[in-house]
Structure formats: C-alpha cells, structure tokens
Amino acid sequence: MRNDDRSGPPPADGVDPRVSGVSNGGPENPDINDLLAKLDALEGVVDDDAERRKVRQTIAMVERMPGSSAFRTRISKYTSRDVAESFVGAVLFSLPLLVEDGVFEIAEWFLAVTVVGVPVFFVGNALFVLAMTAGLLYYADFRQVQVTKPIFGVIPRRYVGVLAVSLFTAVFMLMLWGRLHSGDPTAAERLARVTVIWAVAAFGAALGDILPGESKGADISDRFD
Questions:
Q1: Environment class of residue 112 by beta-carbon count within 10 Å: exposed (0-12), middle (13-18) or buried (19+)?
Q2: Number of domains comprising the chain
Q3: Which of 57, 72, 87 is the last residue of a domain?
Q4: Of 72, 97, 117, which one is at a domain's C-terminal end?
Q5: 188 and 117 in one domain?
Q6: How many CB atoms lie within 10 A of CB 34?
Q7: Is 42 exposed, middle or buried (0-12, 13-18, 19+ CB in 10 A)?
Q8: How does residue 21 score in pLDDT terms, banded at 50, 70 and 90?
C-alpha cells in the first residue's frame, strides 16, 4: 500500500488552494485591476524569494502595458513624484488663504474657547485634518488607494507623507510670506495659524497625490532596499 502524507485530494487545477481568489475563475468581466489583485494575492502566499520577485516583476510589467492606465484606478506605489504632487496641491490650495487676514481671526477663535484649559476648537481642527486626510485617501471614491509597506507594519506611508508635506507647506508658506510673525503673535497663536493653513493644505495635498493616478517611477521603499 502506497504511503501518502497529503491531507486531502489534490486540487483539480494544480494550483495551491491557499491562493484565495486566484485559483477560481474570477469576475465575469475582468479588467486590469482584477488581474493586479490576483497577482497581489499570489505574491502574498508565495514562499520563495525568487518566485516572489518574479511575481513583482509581472505586476510591474502589467502596470506598464500600453493602455493599462485607462482601465487601472488603483494606486499602490508611493513614489517621490507623489510627494512632489502633494506639495504642489498643498501650495495651490493654501495660497488664497495666505493673503487673507481671516487666518488671524480663525487662529484667535481656535484659542478663545477652552474647556479645562484645553482649546477645544484648536484640538477639533487638528483631529478634523487627520480624519479628512484619511477619508480623502482611503474612503472617498476617487481612486482605489492600497496600503502597501506600512510604517511599523501599521501606519500607511501615503497618509503620513501627505500630512507631513502639507504641514511643512503650511509652515514654509506662512514664514515665506511673513504671515507667521505678523502682529507679534504668541507662540500659541503662531501654532494656531499653522493649523488653519494646514487644513486647506492637507486637502490640496491629498487631492494632488491621488487624482493624477499612480505615478511612474520606483517606490520610495525600493530605493532603500
């Protein structure tokens, strides 16, 4: 009698059953996104480094296929070009507000209302920026933005990048245009002014990043591998 250490019958098509969604027929009318999703799933279950590298090369080849961008709405890579697009979007959206003295009034309002010494509207605005940015990137139906290679395995790189670029833009533009120190404000008032510009800059940075679609070039993480 032949010894057989397999726990069950072999798959009919010879494909590893761990590849969920890869061995089945898939959707009725598949497109580039469906193919890339299958390849992503396959990459997740391949154990051998060489084979995983081949899957990545196949994904890159599919993404470079002529005409594929017309059908592809997903964004998975985060490149230096995305950072530049975020900066441009942040500048464009923050410029109109920088010339308005309303920035000073809003900043004063942020600090005027306190509960137990905590400026509630200042904190609320900061939380609003965080939530709005996440919503635009991952929940609004502009693009299918995938979280890849998160920081510490948890924090999305694109989310951190957009917030950091927009915050830098807010500080830089306020200083460049002399709006950060105008009127001899306190340190708290300067910080409040930054958060006012940060709100619109983050909105512009998120849209500037995702609306053009996935950028060409190498992923930022690949530059350090």
A1: exposed
A2: 2
A3: 72
A4: 72
A5: yes
A6: 14
A7: buried
A8: very low
